[in-house]
Design brief:
MT1774/Rv1733c-like
Length: 194
């Protein structure tokens, strides 16, 4: 025996129907508005977030600069901390020459497996403080894209939830209206004709 096929009615909320109520029309407009806001607003939120993240990463690359340094302690026996941008980095004491010629020391993330006295590259911010290496252009672009996608999904989720809340409230109004109508019509069903 063949499977029963179901005819799908597209745009059924918009079609003229004597059983259609005002809440059905309101629900149709809510659905249209929600999907329009998700499509347009989600796209704009994602693009704006990705653009802001990309600008932030570009600013980090402009602000930070590399400085040659010397390891003040060995990193060959150190265990990677997981704090760095790359695995295999450890926090170690380094020594470098500041722009005024003075010698400075501090702790920063460096590659493991080096002896004391090895030359390494460290990163400084605009104030002369030790900092992490800024993300490379490709990594920054990928992270900005992920942040933009996350923002778009978050916006879409919130909009969808707001639409579902509005539809739930409409359903509650329908139930209340049906209950009132049933109180009027229900008792008439028990009467017998004479």
């Amino acid at each position: 025996m063949g499977k029963a096929s179901r005819t799908r009615q597209w745009w059924w909320r918009w079609r003229s129907n004597p059983l259609r109520r005002r809440t059905d029309i309101v629900e149709a407009w809510i659905v249209l508005a929600v999907w329009t806001v998700i499509a347009l607003g989600g796209t704009l939120a994602g693009l704006a977030t990705a653009h802001a993240a990309e600008e932030s990463f570009t600013l980090l690359r402009r602000e930070r600069h590399s400085v040659p340094a010397v390891l003040a302690e060995s990193t060959s026996g150190a265990v990677p901390t997981g704090e760095g941008t790359e695995s295999g980095q450890v926090r170690a004491k380094v020594r470098w020459s500041a722009s005024d010629g003075s010698t400075r020391t501090g702790r920063t993330m460096v590659d493991s497996g080096h002896r004391a006295g090895s030359k390494v590259v460290i990163w400084m911010n605009g104030q002369g403080q030790l900092t992490a290496e800024p993300p490379a252009e490709n990594a920054a672009a990928a992270e900005a894209s992920l942040l933009g996608g996350g923002a778009a999904l978050a916006f879409a989720g919130l909009t969808f939830a707001a639409g579902r809340l509005a539809q739930w409230r409409l359903d509650q109004r329908r139930y209340e209206q049906w209950s009132r109508e049933w109180e009027t019509v229900g008792p008439q069903w028990g009467r017998k004709g004479t």
